[in-house]
Amino acid sequence: MRLFGPYQGKLANGNDAVELIEPDSVLLHGTNFIVTSVVADKVDYRDDSPWPAGADGLGFSLQRRVESAYGNEPTNWVAASPTPDAALGAGTEPAILVGPVDQTVLPGATVFFSVQATGTPPLKYQWRHNGENLPGAVAQLLTLTNVPPAQSGEYQVVVSTIPARL
């Protein structure tokens, strides 16, 4: 396959669609050529589940796991360090074995969230609160002390690794 580029546009961070169009047939109509095209592949990505969370504000890009597989399938994509012009290499993607547990606490209490994950080391962690990264919250354990009511909400952790490249 020949690739043409670089792409001169800009894709939206939250969601967008990308199509790869290729010529299908060329017809001669009088003195004019008519080229018909088909969509060879299409990806309509989002920044929420089931798409990989690591590509949403953590510096990773969406990268295709299997180049010949259907492009518009979220499970065929992984969040990985941007490496233009390189195929996704070997290694085991992180998987959360035991995730953080929902908790209800009184204001002023201390809260502990933890995660157990597996994958090709080194594993990296980023805790989030209501969809926003928590600065400096990059360990397996998140401790919140003297919790005010404003810290209530949804807590998530994104576990990532930098995959080996071929």
Low-confidence stretches: none
Number of helical elements: 0
User: What is the name of the CATH class of the largest domain?
Assistant: Mainly Beta
Strand content: 35-45%
CATH architecture verdict of the largest domain: Sandwich
Q: Tell the overall outline.
A: elongated
* Annotated CATH topology of the largest domain: Immunoglobulin-like
User: What is the assigned CATH homologous superfamily of the largest domain?
Assistant: Immunoglobulins
First CA to last CA: what distance?
19 Å
SSE arrangement, N to C: EEEEEEEEEEE
The residue fraction in helices comes out at under 10%
Average per-residue pLDDT, rounded, comes to 83
Q: Based on DSSP secondary structure assignment, what is the total number of beta strands?
A: 11
Give structural notes:
The protein has 166 residues and is mainly β. It has two domains: 13-88, no CATH class; 89-166, Immunoglobulin-like (Sandwich), CATH 2.60.40.10. Helices cover 0% and strands 40% of the residues. The strands form five sheets. The chain has a three-stranded antiparallel β-sheet with strand order 9-8-11, with no helix packed on it. It has a two-stranded antiparallel ribbon with strand order 1-2. Strands 3-4 form a two-stranded antiparallel ribbon. Strand 1 (15-29) and strand 2 (32-46) form a beta hairpin. The chain is elongated. The model has no long low-confidence stretch (mean pLDDT 83).
